[in-house]
Amino acid sequence: MRRESERGGSLTAVLLAAIIVWLLFLCVDFVKDRVVRSGRFRVSASRITLDASPGRLSPPLASILRSGPAPLDHERSILDPQVPDMVRERLEKRPWIRRVRSVRREFPDRLRVRVELRTPLAVVCAGRERLLIDDEAVVIASDTRLKPPRLPYVRTPGAPLRLVPRDGRTFPATSAVREALSVLRAIRDLGAHAALDTLRIDEVIVGWPDRRRRSGASDVRLVCDTGLEILWGRAPDSQLGLVEHPPATKLDLLQRVQRKHPGLVGIKLVDLRFLEPEFERAH
Predict the structure, then answer these.
(1) All domains of the chain, ordered by start, with CATH?
(2) Range name among 142-151, 212-221, 230-239 with the lowest pLDDT average
(3) Which phi-psi region, left, alpha or beta, contains residue 178 (left: φ > 0; alpha: ψ -120 to 50)?
(4) How many CB atoms lie within 10 A of CB 136?
């Protein structure tokens, strides 16, 4: 009898627990339904805030948010599970935004979106157009008057640009622009180097005027603010880039020339393609 009584008590406890859990689920569903239907817990495009670490050349975050289609097509419940993906997809189509890192709900009616912005690396000259690009060759902005401070121009006289990407699109892998970017990335990734302490790269030129070039040719030149030209050679990540010295060695070679010729006074061009750099004097 005692066992039956204990068994009956255990069964009653289980039933009570099940009823309590069921009631809790009902309460949660009820509260969720009220929140979804409530006008207070709704979010719209005007209640989305961007959060990022703006770069020196990036526009204000508010103007990036206003550019392009609205992150939300209409007002939605803040609990709508589709909202984060929708906001992410629409914002990542903006040229300045490399990626959306997180979408956080701030109750009752706001979203805070953490984004990573693109960092401009150069300005491509394509006819009259000036295209601001990052290290992935993505066009961030285009303007005929564009010349951000301390960014080099990229010119490709040996390989004219037949197709110019629109904002947010990427230069093709075979474009000479990619070779120029490869050199700029390599120099940037090396960090500060004594050879460039007194030189600023104003232009990267790929190819020579009136000469037809082949992709990967050893003809990438750097034009510095002093007027000095540096014949760099091949892009480091081109197919034949490994047959030339690595970028760090080339800058060491430039520094060697600087020691022999302080200030590079009277020198027009330095050729870094060989272990013994050649140079051409100004006339």
Answers:
(1) 42-117 (3.10.20.310), 120-281 (3.40.50)
(2) 142-151
(3) alpha
(4) 14
